Amino acid sequence: MHYEKFADGSVKCIEDEIPFELPDGWAWARIGTICIINPRNNIADDLEVSFIPMPMISEGYVNTHTYEVRTWNNVKSGFTHFAENDIGIAKITPCFENRKSVIFKKLVNGYGAGTTELHILRTLDGTISNEYLLWIAKMESFIQGGVQTFSGAVGQQRVGKDFFSQYLIPIPPHNEQIRIVNKINLIFNFVITMENEKSSLHETIKQAKSKILDLAIRGQLVPQNSDDEPASVLLERIRAEKEELIKQGKIKRDKKESIIFKGEDNSYYDEIPDGWSEIALKDVCEVRNGYAFKSSNFSQNGTPIIRISDIQNETISIEECVYWNQEVDKRFVIEKGDLLIAMSGATTGKMGVYKSDLPAYLNQRVGNVRIKDDTILCVGYRDIYLRGMQDFILKNAYGGAQPNISSKFIEDIQILLPPYNEQLRIVEKVKILFQILNTIEKSLL
């Protein structure tokens, strides 16, 4: 239990005021017991001092101020007094909530006066770090506690001296106060740097996402597991299925089909992680072209037609799509999970996943990359791999000002296929990392 002993010898239990337990060596104290609140200066009238009105005090989490030079006899009456290293905290709304609080530094002759809308804290004995106390005053819990005690007319409400005097704060050992202050300053300096470099940070985040995708498709994002079924076994299942379809006469043998394998030196032309295989995209996906719908037959209802303009932010939006109410060959039907890609125009290579349960139709100049067997290639890994190849796709587009890519070009893209379980781990890792980066990016808005 926590008790408080008063000057008259009385003792009071204050357990209900204690917000949390403190580490060993820490103690609770009221600001009024460790500081002089609103002290007065007793100095010569002709001494030059600093004069600081409210606009000269920074707000937020910085600790700066400017000043004007005045003689003491011109500012000693009708203004708040303070001295070097005193802490000034705004008491009036909205300055209090905006954290207009500061440690007064480099004052002319060590003294100053300023706005009457300040409470001044002067620490005693040097055992309490001024910066530690200032950070306490900038905490949200301190601000909200002060707001609850506001008094005065609307728009002119103030925090009284009693709130400051009675406010309980945790006191660490002095050396730990210094360590805490240094850590806070380090973190906030980093935050301020990020704030000042938002535009470059957006680009950094974009580059980080690109690097994550690059690491993912090279087998460097998650650890390999020797117990996973190798990708070569998955590919053998594909080849066996193809052979059966050829025997049944359902498909013809592709004379250009090849098998990529390791030589005696146990390596491909590039180093590939154990258990992975290099294949052409067409081995695990089919790429379908869209249909040239006549715009004169567009309808206000029916089945949505997905055009290039509907591929937005790596997904498919049907908010502004057009509709078709006639029967269409099933080759042009889009299903949930299909990856669509712009095949021509200024946005060639942009991609989006169709996530709706409703069917849709594929318009011309839009390609559909559909997985043949999702027990061999998982949807998420397909998306990660092709997004990581977007720069490559755009660089290899043809047509100058109006670039184009063909379905054959997409099908012939070589991909590195990990074991299926590793694909799942890669997808989950990328998801977590992208969520972190997206959270950071949203905070910059």
TrEMBL record:
Coiled-coil annotated residue ranges, if any: none
Gene Ontology BP annotations: DNA restriction-modification system
GO MF term list: DNA binding; endonuclease activity
Entries under InterPro entries matching the protein: Restrct_endonuc_typeI_TRD, Restrct_endonuc_typeI_TRD_sf, Type-I_RE_S_subunit
Record flagged with keyword Nuclease: yes
CDD domains the UniProt entry points to: RMtype1_S_EcoEI-TRD1-CR1_like, RMtype1_S_LdeBORF1052P-TRD2-CR2
Keyword Cytoplasm: no
Stretches assigned to the Type I restriction modification DNA specificity domain: 23-198, 273-442
Signal sequence residues: none
Alphabetical list of SUPFAM superfamilies matching this protein: DNA methylase specificity domain
UniProtKB keywords: DNA-binding, Endonuclease, Hydrolase, Nuclease, Restriction system
Family: Belongs to the type-I restriction system S methylase family.
Known partners and oligomeric status: The methyltransferase is composed of M and S polypeptides.
Protein name: Restriction endonuclease subunit S
Source organism: Clostridium porci
Lineage of producing organism: Bacteria, Bacillati, Bacillota, Clostridia, Eubacteriales
